[in-house]
Amino acid sequence: MAIRLLCLLGCLFFGHLIAEEAITGITVDLREPEYADGVVSTSLGGVIRAPYVRIQAQNIRYTHDTSGEVVNDTVVAEGDVRFESFSYLFVGQKLEYNLTNQTGFIYYGKTSVYPWFFGGKLIQICADGSYIIYDGYMTSSESMCPEWMIAVDTARIYPNHDLVAKQIKVKVKDFPLFWAPKFCANLDTLCDMPVKFTLRWGGKQGSRVGVSYELLSWENLSTLLRLDYNLKRGLGTGGELHYRSPENNEKFDSINYFAHEVDPANPHINTRYRFQGRYLRFWRDGKTLFEMKYDKLSDKMMATDYSDRGLDLEYARKTDLLLHHQQRYWLGNLLIRPRINSFQTIKQELPTFSTASLPLSNALGIISSFQANASYLDFQYAQGAVNVHDFTATRVELHSGFYRPFGNGYAKIIPGLNAIGIFYGNKPYHGQYWLAAGLASLDGELLLSRDYGWGRHVVRPYFNYNYLTQPTIPPDSHYIFDISDGIYRMNTLRFGTVNYFLDPFSGSCQPIVFLDTYGWALMDNKKIPHPLPYFTANLSFMTFGVLQNSVLATWDLSHGGFGELNFKSAWTVSRNLATSLEYRQRNAFFWRKVDRENFVLDFFRSENELLHSPLSDQRRTLLLHFFYRINYDVALEWNSRFGWDRRHEPHYFEYDVNILASLPAHWEMKLSFQHKEVDDRFAVYFSFGTEQR
Questions:
Q1: 16 three-class SS
Q2: Secondary structure of residue 22 in the 3-state scheme
Q3: Model pTM?
Q4: Alpha-carbon span 41 to 43, nearest angstrom
Q5: In the chain, is it the N or the C terminus that has fewer CB atoms within a 10 Å radius of its CB?
Q6: What DSSP state is assigned to residue 664?
């Protein structure tokens, strides 16, 4: 008390008080204070500091009460109150605070955690560092009269920025739009508005009004509720769940949506749904992985209708279960892939076991590898497909390979031998068969380089030769489940030269110019009209860091003209303007294949057969993407695709025009007009933050 009395006497003499309590660490700094009965007050402003706390106001009353068994230090502050504690700064009209037990109340207070602002008629300060807001609000508007808010009966904010709010109402200018009983989130991750609205007008799917609500965003778990009403089809509701473990070694995402609506294209369907999910778990040792995926839909258009964005089509995903384990010298997989959607054509794997040894090298430098697969396969066509038959078979595949590199850092040659054996438990005419074939390969390359003042030029001539022997049974005599069953005698050679131009001063490992020119020789087969059918150039280059171009051109030496021509140019014109242009062309003799460098079809089927099959897909396509930022708040986006020169289908022109606008209080609006081959529609999307950008 002697220290306190000396400070009080000094304040009466100097008209200013600075008192420090050595025990509690409280510092009182008041201007022209008054002292009476253990109470120090001022109406001219001051600051009080304590551990983790700073209080500033115009009128302050500080009381040091020693009448009880425990000393109590309390503060009552009014007028321009500022209260700082931990990571929060509150402003308000009045503060009542107990410095001893670190509890109190703020009247008509507010605080912020970017981009959110919080406030309420009463804010309770808790000893654990959390705050309870009564009759409060949450908004992103910076104005005194916010354009919108989320009103809450009670909300609690924790020191780690976790938020728990009850009885929430979304309001725009005091007009209520949405109500929910509870909302949980972490403010550091809540960069998006928990409530979103969508309005779509026109089109064959009908006009739709939708709202989605993020019910929970808590640590590693978030849930989203969704409600849609289609004026033509009816009501739809559902939810999404997303989970990430703290160690990030376990993930789960799911979509569950149910709608009682009528599809105009299929009037007999009046109940539509989508249940999609993915669970992933891997162990810290990195040796074992478990993954499960599923996607159950009522009809094949449900995936696109659920996403409902832009020109892109959404498709049903595959349903499968994968268990992967890896050791030092081998790895193994268990894959189960059933069909759960009758409108899909799929190869069911019920199941597939596979194992493989990691490449091993012996004393002679020969590297060996081994792989084995065992499956029960059930190929099912989509329901309604005509003139096709499902088929099943057990399948066991053994694959062993040996190769030996020769050479140094500048030149190398790698000969290789592979043996392939496949057992089919069933075939089109019943019975069991073994298929056996051999593959001989020879790869070689030469690496040359030269340094210049501006960078380095690298030249790599190469060749890849493969000879696949005639299998013991032809492809027509066994089932073809996928491309790995397409084994037939082939004799192919790819030869070419790769050129790199590297700039070591650009700070990027990507070459500024890449050029790969190569030709194909398809030899020893009468069904191929020309032994050198294709010559390809693959070019990509960057200009001034803002213009990127790529060209993939294949000249058809058998029929003349381009077999394939793909050109793409992406140009960042300025900070406000960017555009990209892409042109794609394919002639009727450049077959549509998953692997464009697999020529089993070319060797096994005649050109006339392939020409009259769906693999012959002649077409030309022009893609244009344009983005222009008119000003800081408004941008224009254009996406279009134009297709023509199609052999059996008419030309088409589809486009998507979007106006992106930033509204007050961090709201984003997207106005979209979408023109498709069979549909036109207008849509409005509202979101919070920068999702649309």
A1: strand
A2: coil
A3: 0.70
A4: 7
A5: N
A6: G
